[in-house]
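**Sequence, C-alpha cells**
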Amino acid sequence: MGRPVPERCRLLAAAALILSLVLPAAAQQAYDFRLRDLSGVETRLSALWERGPVLISFWATWCLPCAKELPHLQKLADAYAGRGVSVLAVSVDAPASTAAVAAYVRRYGYTMPVLLDSESRVVALYNPRLTLPYTVMIDKGGRIAYVHQGYSPGDEAGLEEKLIALLVRRETVAEPASAPFVSPGVSESFLFRRFTDDEAVAARGGRSSQILNQLDLTLARKGTLLGIRADAGLDFPPAAADFRLAKLFLEQTGRGWSVRLGDFHLSLGRGMVFSVLKIFEKEGLEHVVDTTVRGGQASFASGRWEGQVFGGWIEREEDASVRDRMAGGGVRWRAWGSARLGFNAVAAGLEPGSDFANRSAGLGSLTLEIPSFLGGASLYGELSLIRRSEYGADEPVSGHGLYLQTAFRTSRVGALLEVKDYREFNFEYARPPILEGEELDILADQFDEDRSGVTGAALRLDRFWPEAGSLAYVRLSWAGDAPRRHYLYGAYRRTILHAYGGWEKKFGGGGYVHILAGWRREEADSIAFLATDGDTVHGQINASLPLGGRWSLEADWKRKEFRGAEYDYAEDRAGLALHASPRWVAALLWEKSDEPSVTALTGRSSWAGVQLEWKAGAFLYLRAFLGSSKGSTKCAGGACKALPPFTGFRLEAVVRY
C-alpha cells in the first residue's frame, strides 16, 4: 500500500467525485463517535444529537486561536443548555500533554464537556488536515449543518445566529429526516509551491515548482467505517510524479468493542511505551508527519475493565520498503471511584538503520491515575521498564522511564508539578513527556527523541481572576542530562534551567492580550551543544483589537536574545493581521535574525511575506503566501519538527465535498 499505484489513485478520485455529486445529502451526515472526558466518563455523540443540536469544537492547549474561542463556546453552552443544545470541546492534545489539558480546563473553570481525542481519530474524520480550531454544528437528525475553520473575533456572533436558526428549525419541524444508507465524506487538500531561491531550486534537482495533493475518502454505515487516503506529488520542470495509496482501513464498532484492520494511530499510557500519532499536518502538506501502524487492532470496554491489543508493522518514512514489526496492548481497571490502574506492553523487531540502532525491544509499564481527589487534586504516575538489543552490540541494554504528575486547583489558584527520570529509555516509537517548554523554539526538541539519561521537573503556578478575565502565571523547569553512554556523543553532563511568566487578559467584545517573558540557562561540557550552551532571554506579545462590526486587528511579536560561550545573536518575529469575520484574514509577516548558522544557510538576515486567507463557508478554504520565511523548530503536544526556510509562493486549498 505504500508503493506508487497511480491507477488506484485515479479510480479513487473518480469514485470520490461521483459520490460528492450523486449523494450530496449523505455527505452532510455526521460521524458518530465515543470519547472519554478527563474523568474517564464516556460520551456518545448520537445520544446527544437525539436530544438537540450539538456544537463540537476541536482544540489544543498550544493553539492560541483556540484560547480565544473557548470562552465564547462556554457562554453558548450556558445560554442554550435549557433548549437541548450540547457543546463539546474535543482536545486533540497528545497523551503526553494530558496533564496540561486537565490543568487548562480547571484553570478557566470550563464546565462544558471536554473530551480527549488523543489519537486524533475523531478529528481526522471531520477535518483530516487537523487545522485548529475547527468547529462543527450538528442538527437533531445527525446532519452537519455548519462548519468553520479557525477563529477571528466576531465569529462567535455568526455561530450563535446559526445555532438559533437550527433551534427554530428543530422546534418547527416535527420529525427529522432519516439517516442515509451510507454516509460518504470527501476532503481534498492541495498545495502549490513555487521556489524562487536558487539554492533551494538546485537542492531539488533544478525543479522550481511542486504540487502536492491529498484525497481523503470515508464511507460510514452504522458501526462500519471505511477510510482511504491517496497522495499525489508532482515536481517540475522536468516532471517527476509520485502517486501513493497512503492509508487504508476498515473499522467495525459494536457495543463496548471495536476492531480495525489497516492503518491506525495508537498511544499507550502517556506515550512512554508506544506512541504513533499524526502531527504537524497543520503546518502544511509539505510537513506532514503521519506515521501509522499497519495491521490490526481490537479494543473492548466492559464494566470496570477496558483494554486493547494490536499487531502489525510500521513503514519507515524515508523508505517504505523497510518495515519494523510491532505487537502489544494494554488494559485498565477502575479500582475505586474514578481511580484507574493500568498495564501496557509492547514487543518490537526493527530493521537496520533505526534511530537508536535497536534490533529488538520489549517495554512494559504500570500506570496509576486518580483524576480527582481531596476536592481539587489529581495524580498520575507511570513506571516503565525497557530491554533492548542493538545492532553491533553483544549485550542487551536495560533501562527505565518514570513520570509523575500531580495538580491542585481551587476556583482561583492552580499548581501543576511534573517529574521525569529516563535512563537508557530510547525506543523509536515511544514519546514520553519531555517537560521542556514549547513557548520557546530554541531546540525544544532536545529531549523529544533522546532519553539516554535525563532527569527533570517542571512546576507551574497560576492565579485566575474570573470576574476580570485575567490570568497571571509562572513556570519553572529544570533538567539534568547526564548519560553514561550516549549513542552519538558518549558521556557528558548538561543542565538546563528555564523560568518564565506571563499575564493574559480577555476583554469584552473580543479583545485579548497575552504577554510572556522568560530566561533560560544551559550549561554543558560537550561541544555537541554549542548552539544552545548559554543564556537566553525571550519575550512575546499577542493582542487582538476589535475595530467594530466584523473587523478586528491582531498583532504578534516575539524576541529572543542569546548570549553563549562561542557567539551571541538576536532574533525577532512580528506579524500584523486584519480579520474580517468570518471570511477573510490578511497578514504581514516579518522576521530578523543574526544567528550565524541561519545567515550562513540562507544568505540573508531578514525575511518578509504577505499572507491571505479566505474561508468560503464549509466547503472551501484558501491560503496564499508570497515572500520568505526563516524556518524554525516548532513543537506541539510534546512532538517537535524543524521547518526549513522558504522563499517563493505558496497556495494551499482545502475542499470538502
Observations:
- Residues 155-172 form the longest helix (18 residues).
- The chain has eight helices and 37 strands.
